[in-house]
Structure formats: C-alpha cells, structure tokens
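Board notes, transcribed. Complex of a protein with S-adenosylmethionine.
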Amino acid sequence: MKELILEMEEYASLKNVPIIEKDSIAFIMKYIKKNNIKNILEIGSAIGYSTILMASVSPEVTVTTIERDEERYMECLKNVKKCGFEKKINVVFQDALDVNLTGVKYDMIFIDAAKGQYTKFFEKFKYFLTDNGIIITDNLKFHGHVGKSSEIESKNLKSLVEKIENYIEFLKDNKEFETNFYDVGDGLSVSVKKNEK
Ligand code: SAM
C-alpha cells in the first residue's frame, strides 16, 4: 500500500495530475476516523490518490468517486485494483453534474473537482447526505490567489478565483449548513448539515 501511494505521487508529479496535499488528506483521514464516517462520495477522483487513502482508514469505509477524464479514470481503476479495494471503491466515469443518484445517502461528500463549479456540486449533492452529514471542499485558498482576485490580471484566472470567493461567501451565508474553514494544505472547509427541526 505504502509503495502504491508513493508510486501514485510520482505519477501525479510526472504527468502533472493535481492531487491533494499531504496535510489535507491527513486532516480528512483523521476526521473520517474520529467521526466514524463510513460512506463517502468524492467528486473528482483523478488517479484515485485521495480515494484510496480515504478508503484505507477502516475496513468499513466505502467510497464512490466520480471522474470525467478517461485517462485518469482508467488509471484510478488500475490503482484501486492494485490495492485490492474493488469492493470498497466504486469508480464512476461521468461528469459529476450529469450523474444520477437515487436511493443513496453519504456520511461525507468530498468536493475536489472543477473549482468554478463548487456551488453547483454543493447544491446538487447536498440532497444525498445523511442527517448531520458533512461536505468537505478542498483548494479554497487556490495557491494564495483567493481574496486577491482584484489584483489578478489574467481574465481566466480572475474569473476562477472570483468563483471560489463567491463559493466561500455562499458557504458563510448558508443557513442549512454550519461551515468551518481550515488553514490546512490549500485551504479546506467542513460544512456540517444542520438537523431539520
Ligand atoms: N481528489 C483527487 C486526489 O486528491 O487524489 C484529485 C482530484 S483533481 C484536483 C480534480 C479532478 O476532477 C480532475 O481529475 C478532473 O478531471 C476532475 N473533474 C473536474 N470536473 C469534474 C466534473 N464536473 N465531473 C467529474 N470530474 C471532474
């Protein structure tokens, strides 16, 4: 397992595949363990690095992960097989915004896909959370750009950073969820669903 993880880190670095920072995945794994989280939905598998590490927390953890890039999806499948997690991890090859989920609920949803679509992912998938379920989002600092969009000259980057800034405001204003922000890795949020009264 350790060897596979190192292999994946090397592959990601060679092929320029973005994977989660070590501090962030360590934080998430700790959270999963502490809160006895069993059923996870991940948006954005890439090559399965965070997927496999989350699934490794305990034998009871299962992960459904969605990836729209075919090459990464294939690599993810290969890695899931290599560590023998075929029964714990379900890899879905589709755009997350087109996925149809019915009759399933997750204790945790991890959003780690297209940054410009965070609000859409949140609004679509929040219905698939268990009571007190949580949504974790990565890259809220976006390499230090967030909070400084007015200083950015590149149009595309500016627009992307503005979308993340808007997502942060959306989380802060959200009455259905209580969100905490953590200065870990590239910036994480944990949004806990409030109990309906
Ligand atoms: N969670 C992975 C890890 O830490 O090992 C990293 C995921 S990477 C930051 C983001 C991935 O999300 C990319 O591989 C990209 O192809 C995928 N992605 C982006 N938008 C998506 C969408 N709408 N549906 C499915 N996958 C998407």
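The two ends are 44 Å apart (CA to CA). The chain has a mean pLDDT of 95.
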